[in-house]
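HOLO CASE FILE
Compound: zinc ion
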Amino acid sequence: MENYTVITENDESEWDDQTGVLYHFPNKYLNHLQPGTKVIYYKGKIKNVSYRNKRLHDAPHYFGIGTVGRVYPDSASTKKDWFATIDSFVLFSTPVLAKRESGYIEEIPTNKEKNYWRDAVRPITSDIANSIVELTSLQEVPEADTNDAEQGLVSSYAEGAATKRYVTTYERNPELRRQAIAIHGTSCFGCGFSFEKHYGEHGKGYIHVHHTKPVAESGERTVDPVEEMIPLCANCHSMVHRYKNKTLTLDELRLLQAPPSETHSDCIFCRIPEGREIVAENYYAFAIRDAFPVSEGHTLIIPKRHIADYFDLTHSESIAINELLKECRDNILKSDKTITGFNVGVNAGSSAGQTIMHCHTHLIPRRYGDVKQPRGGVRGVIPEKQKY
Ligand SMILES: [Zn+2]
Ligand SMILES: [Zn+2]
Ligand SMILES: [Zn+2]
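Model generated. Tokens follow.
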């Protein structure tokens, strides 16, 4: 017997789930949202009219149906929340109002008359579910206006029956793709590349999604979008599939972009003391505040690999450091309105002033009037040459 559950989508929610892709919920509803449960989406009465154009109706109504795919603990939550992937979601062509002339469609138990609607997740019988669906029709799924679901099918690595089927069946599955992107985001797991950052609005939402398990080991229904579907940029994805008989793992791909690192026990940037806050981080680099700041907010961007010379950074490390420079700059500006400029600098070699032989880039906030004559900026590394 199939289980049916009504799930509420609030206009304003702490989770901001994409309808029909993911659904976050508190632990108390876990029993009602097991894999395979049919879910009918519900919206309560409108509270803020600015959401009017995103709803089918102002009054409480049902508006779509799907099936719970997989359920995961929400690692970002401190309250034991969960989230579910939603499969085969279809919107209703017209809203089904929760209250009809004859009364509510849902049966309200007499002991719950006062607080029935407070529960965002409500199990219902199959009869009630059917009567909701009978009052509307299912919308035809509109054809996407992008070729995103086609990506990943590149002839050079679609050779050989297994590979071809694999790419076709898994990486072109638009539903798994949407779920994986909702979970992981659209930045490349290999190199951090973001199509939106690079190409603006035109690139927004674009990313390849790579399936990490070979086809022989899993059937379509068992694909786990958290563990097995990872976002990769087109370049990293091509490199992963470059050789027919050897698909790279994510770790192998990353090793190509930054050689294995050796931790130096006597290096203070290889072993950041406990309690020292990491203010930003990505796969190849991290940022901390300088222990002896030149100005308030002085931040260091440091590659995770122990490498002395800035010029020995790999391309991926350079990009990662640059990304963190911008991220830190944005955050510092947001929290401190007195900042009016920045110096960015690297000391490469002891004659250039480098004292810690683990490469680091300085991000130094500047404020109007912090020195009498700022003219020349980093030219001041040779003080008598700063002014020109
Ligand atoms: Zn990449
Ligand atoms: Zn792939
Ligand atoms: Zn080091």
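CASE NOTES: The first strand starts at residue 4 and ends at 8. The chain has seven helices and 15 strands.
CLOSED: yes
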